[in-house]
Specification:
Length: about 300
């Protein structure tokens, strides 16, 4: 199989879960096709820049395979899609992170988040103070409602607030959740992209996978999930502490890299071992022949 054919088969495989999300939420193929054109235009600009070539409409058309008139339309009419920022923009997630990592909201020396009053006139170490210090443009009441609704924070009988989780996950599909998924997928695919280049194969980014070659017994799967959660959570917390300890002052002008580490647990379903399109078409043809036979027999 050629590299091109292999890449196309791989991309189709990767697109299936994306297409599933789109279909589940009522996004038709035509809308996806338009977004794909813009993605090709953006990627074409990047590749042309990588090769040190001057960016022209003709060259962009040549690289992407989109006609010049189509490329011009794409360039002049960008899609109305909310921009995805480099950093996590969700106020609740940022507050929860600060609660676990920033002084004076962490109990020293054990490093656990303090129980906080919502507000108090005689103290700045409150939930309202936490929000104002780290997400000043957010409404503390709205942030708290979101954290409690997600189960990330609970309030005890005394009225004190304490986090039950280090990570924030929304209950309903929301704009912030979609942005999070987009960032996570993009970061992982960017890592694979770098590692597939000539230089990346030698000095690329860290990317490793542990595979259960013979599978995990069904009776042990719950234990496996619990072990993965505890082990990965501890590793991520260690990395987070390193990042916090080496963070620059807010007013620093020193250049930075926007970087981090992501971990995920995957589980292959039977549908991941795809039925090929050829087999699917043959199945439909056979079904069609069967229906025709039934109609003929019914007519006689």
């Amino acid at each position: 199989m050629s590299i091109k054919a292999c890449l196309l088969a791989a991309v189709r495989h990767m697109l299936i879960p994306i297409a599933r999300v789109l279909i589940r939420n009522g996004v038709p193929y035509g809308d996806f096709e338009e977004v794909a054109r813009h993605a090709f235009a953006k990627a074409g600009q990047s590749v042309i820049g990588e090769r040190g070539l001057q960016l022209t409409l003709s060259r962009l058309s040549l690289f992407t395979g989109l006609p010049r008139r189509e490329m011009r339309r794409v360039m002049e009419r960008p899609p109305q899609i909310t921009e995805i920022s480099l950093t996590d923009s969700n106020a609740a997630a940022r507050v929860l992170h600060a609660w676990h990592t920033k002084s004076p909201y962490v109990v020293v020396p054990i490093g656990v988040p303090m129980d906080l009053e919502y507000d108090a006139t005689d103290s700045n170490t409150t939930f309202v103070g936490l929000v104002k210090a780290h997400v000043p443009d957010a409404n503390p009441s709205d942030v708290l409602s979101e954290l409690i609704a997600s189960g990330s924070v609970k309030q005890d009988e005394r009225g004190f607030l304490h986090p039950t989780s280090r990570t924030f996950v929304t209950g309903e599909l929301s704009e912030d959740q979609i942005k999070y998924a987009a960032r996570a997928a993009r970061r992982f695919l960017d890592t694979l992209d770098v590692n597939l280049t000539k230089d990346g194969r030698r000095t690329g980014r860290f990317e490793r996978t542990v595979v259960a070659d013979k599978g995990v017994p069904v009776r042990c799967y719950a234990d496996f999930v619990a072990y993965v959660r505890s082990t990965m959570q501890q590793t991520l917390e260690d990395i987070d502490e390193w990042i916090t300890a080496n963070a620059l002052a807010t007013d620093s002008l020193e250049p930075v890299f926007w970087t981090g580490v992501g971990m995920y647990h995957w589980l292959e379903q039977e549908e991941d071992f795809e039925l090929s399109l050829k087999e699917l078409l043959l199945e439909e043809i056979n079904q069609g022949h069967s229906h025709e036979k039934d109609h003929r027999e019914a007519a006689h």
